Amino acid sequence: MSTFQAPKGTYDLIPPHSATYLAVREAIAAPLKNSGYGYIETPGFENVELFARGVGESTDIVTKEMYAFETKGGDRLALRPEGTASVLRAALEANLHKAGNLPVKLWYSGSYYRYERPQKGRYRHFSQVGAEAIGAEDPALDAELIILADQSYRALGLRDFRILLNSLGDKECRPVYRAALQDFLRGLDLDEDTRRRVDINPLRVLDDKREAVQKQLAGAPLLRDYLCEACKAYHEQVRELLTAAGVAFEDDEKLVRGLDYYTRTTFEFVHDGLGSQSAVGGGGRYDGLSEMIGGPALPSVGWALGVDRTVLALEAEGITLDIPAATAVYAVPLGEEARRVLFRAVTELRRAGVATDFAFGGKGLKNAMKSANRSGARLALVAGERDLAEGVVQLKDLTSGEQTAVALDAVVDEVRRALS
Ligand code: AMP
C-alpha cells in the first residue's frame, strides 16, 4: 500500500522548522498582549450563513473558496476562511460589547481554510494571527493596530515590507462612488464574469490583476475624490498619528481588499521579496459588519497577519530567528542501573525547570553522544557502573569537552550552576 500524503495545498510543520512558526506567532502576538488585547478562540467551523453575510456573498472567498458542507444532523457549516466574522459573532454572543468597556480588544491565532489554487505563499490551509478592536470609532484605534503590526514585523527583523493605506469611505459617500464607478466600468470592454462583478462588487474590479483590464482602468474615478468630509478628516487623523509614531506608509488609492464589509481605513502589509503573493497581512475598519450579522451598530477595526507568508518573508530577507535550543541537558546512561538512576535525575531536572532529554532505546555511547550533540544541549550527564559505585555522574560541557564528576544528590544544583 502506498503511504499517505498531506492533501493538496497543505503542508506539515515539522521540527526544527516548526519552531520558527511558533516564534513568528509569538512575535506577532506579543505587542497585542502588551496593549490590552485579550485572547479569543473560536471554533474552526461556523454556520455557513455567518460567512455568507459577514464576508459577503459577492466575494471569491464565499462563492468559490469556502469549504462548506452539510452535517449528518442537517446543519450547513463551513470551515472558517477568515477570522473577523467569527470573532465578532463570539463577542456579540457573549455580550462583551455590553460590559461597558468599549472597545473590546481581542487577538487570536489559528488555522484558516480556503479552496484556492495552490502556489508558493498560497495554501488551502494557512495560519493567521489576528486582532480586532470592536465598538469604537477612533482614528487612534486604527493607528494603534497598524503600529502594532509594524512593531511585530520589526521585532522579527523584517525590513523589506511596505504599508499601503487607503480609505474606503462610509455608508454616506461609498454608494455615490460605487455608482460612479459602475457607470465608468459599464463603458469598458470586459468579459462576462467581470461584467457581473461590476454589478455586485465593482470595487473588486479595480483589483483585477490582468493587464488588459488594468489598461482600461486608467481613467477610473478615484474614491479619494468622493470621500465625504467626515471620512476625509478621519483618514487625515489616522495618517497624522502614524506619521507621529514614525511608521512609514504609502497612500494607495486603488487598495480595496477582497471583503465586502470594509469601511474607511483599509491597509495591507506587502513584502517585496515574495513575488505574486506579496500580501503578508491586511485589515481595516468594518463599521457595518455587526449589523450585517444581526448585532447592534459597533464600529470596529482589525487585521490579520499571515504566518506562512511572514515565514517566507523571513526567508526572503535571509533572517534566521534566534531560537534557543529546546534542550539544555542530555542524559546518557551506560547500562541498566545507570538508566534507572539517570532517568530519575532527568525527572528531577525537569521538575526544577531545566529542559532535559534522555537517550532512550538503549543506545551505545557513541550514538547517544551524537544525539546529545544534535539536541543542541550544552551539557551531557553521563553515568556508567563505575560512576554509580562512587555515587557520582559525569557532567560534560558539550562545547568545551570538559568533564567533571558531580555527586548524584547535587546534580540539580551543579547543572544549574553550569548553565548560569
Ligand atoms: P485576507 O483575509 O485575505 O486579507 O488575508 C490576510 C492574510 O492572510 C494575507 O495577507 C496572507 O498573509 C494570509 N493569507 C490569506 N490567504 C492565504 C492563503 N491561501 N495562503 C496563505 N496565506 C494566506
Rg, please?
27 Å
Number of domains: 2
Q: Within the largest sheet, what's the order of strands?
A: 1-5-6-11-10-9-7-8
Unique bound compounds: adenosine monophosphate
The CATH topology of the largest domain corresponds to BirA Bifunctional Protein, domain 2
Count of helical segments? 16
CATH homologous superfamily placement of the largest domain: Bira Bifunctional Protein, Domain 2
Helix content: 25-40%
Shape annotation = elongated
Main CATH class of the largest domain: Alpha Beta
Question: Which features does this protein show?
Answer:
BirA Bifunctional Protein, domain 2, 16 strands, single chain, five-stranded mixed β-sheet, alpha+beta, 37% helix, binds adenosine monophosphate, Rossmann fold, 420 residues, eight-stranded mixed β-sheet
Your description of this structure?
With 420 residues, the protein is α+β, with helices and mostly antiparallel strands. It has 2 domains: 17-173 and 227-316, Bira Bifunctional Protein, Domain 2 (BirA Bifunctional Protein, domain 2, 2-Layer Sandwich); 329-419, 3-Layer(aba) Sandwich (Rossmann fold), CATH 3.40.50.800. Helices cover 37% and strands 21% of the residues. The protein contains 16 helices and 16 strands. It has helices at 18-33, 48-54, 60-63, 84-93, 139-155, 174-186, 192-200, 202-205, 211-216, 229-244, 289-292, 307-316, 336-351, 365-374, 385-389, 411-419, and strands spanning 38-39, 45-47, 68-70, 76-79, 104-113, 125-134, 161-167, 250-251, 263-271, 279-285, 300-306, 329-333, 356-358, 379-383, 392-397, 403-407. It has an 8-stranded mixed beta sheet, with helices on both faces. It is elongated. The model has no long low-confidence stretch (mean pLDDT 94). The chain binds adenosine monophosphate (AMP).
